[in-house]
Amino acid sequence: MVTTTTPRQAVTMKAVIQDRYGGSDVLRVGDVDVPEPGDNEVLIRVHAAGLDRGTEHLMTGKPYAMRIATGIRRPKNPVSGRDVAGTVVKVGSAVTRFAPGDEIYGVAPGSFAEYAVGPESKLAHKPINLTFAQAAVVPISAGTALQALRGVGKIQAGQKVLVIGASGGVGSYAVQLAKIFGAQVTGVASVAKADFVRNLGADHVLDYAHDDFADGTRCYDLILDIGGGSSLKRLRRALQPRGTVVFVGSENTGNITGMGRQLRGAIVSLFVPERLALLVAKERASDLELLTEHLEAQRLVPTLADSFSLDQARAAMQLLEAGSIRGKVVIIPLDSHAQDVTA
């Protein structure tokens, strides 16, 4: 049984869908059924949906190991998107934290659509000072950065932290959160994005094409390697004695598991003083609630670069594939198609 306050039901909705794995060319806008929430789920009227690297992986089906869960030959869920911000339309019978009309944000698979269903355990009330578009670029990327720094990295005030990939979705929040936690932060990014990283609060910015973070000029207590490809030897060279590297993401590490370098790092850690740790991020409401505190206090700022309509989702994905986005972008459903939904 579900609870709702809206007067009329939409049977279908517009969504960004894919029928096969591949590049951005597999994405198209089509009509699909409006999803129905289960007992522990919430149906959301989507106002904005963030684009993250995880959505790209789901689109390409790489690394291949992920297809065990997402579909061997084609996606089990053909609707793209994960980050979401919107208004609650219905709640399942076991949901206790939300009611129809609430403004929320979090994770809802299939969020590149007019409506999406998300589990209560991965949703939180939207920060009151943020627009839906700003809120939609926070959940997965900021939550991942938080877990990398605090959960796995065990960050301490006064530490020197290196963020490799500082201008991307996760990196842009990692820089800000590391500063909130009292660290001295160095970001690695392209020259074109150096000012963006400085404005996030980085104390130092290195050009990934010309500056060598492992040249001995500085050594770091904690390194976040976000989708990088540096060798384990080079990463260890940049660490303080007994420092920690946290591997975030699976880019540039092979098409089978996407974690070959990370797994080697875990083995090496058994025999060296440095710690090389793999982050397995979990999407959870408790992290969102902590992030909300920082966002409402304006200690943390959403890294919203641009917005696109459903029809422009392919173009947005192409920018992500090219690595040209500073922070994150959002997909905004076409309001002209949206209708109210009831039980």
Kindly list the characteristics that best describe this protein.
2 domains; alpha/beta; about 25% helix; about 30% strand; single chain; about 350 residues; Quinone Oxidoreductase, Chain A, domain 1; six-stranded parallel beta sheet
How are the elements arranged and paired?
Blueprint: E1 2-4, E2 12-17, E3 28-33, E4 41-50, H1 53-60, H2 67-70, E5 83-92, E6 103-107, E7 115-119, E8 123-125, H3 132-136, H4 139-152, E9 160-164, H5 169-180, E10 184-189, H6 194-199, E11 204-207, E12 220-226, H7 232-237, E13 239-248, H8 260-268, E14 275-278, H9 285-296, E15 304-309, H10 313-322, E16 328-332
Parallel strand pairs: 9-10, 9-12, 10-11, 12-13, 13-14, 15-16
Antiparallel strand pairs: 1-5, 2-3, 4-5, 4-7, 4-16, 5-6, 6-8
Total number of beta strands: 16
* Category from helices, strands and their pairing: alpha/beta
**Which geometry do the CA atoms define?**
globular
CATH architectural arrangement of the largest domain: Alpha-Beta Complex
Number of helices: 10
- Percent of residues in β-strands: 25-35%
Main β sheet profile: 8 strands, mixed
Pfam families: ADH_N (PF08240), ADH_zinc_N_2 (PF13602)
InterPro entries: ADH-like_N, Chloroplast_QOR, ER, GroES-like_sf, NAD(P)-bd_dom_sf, Quin_OxRdtase/zeta-crystal_CS
Domain Enoyl reductase (ER): 22-331
Protein name: NAD(P)-dependent alcohol dehydrogenase
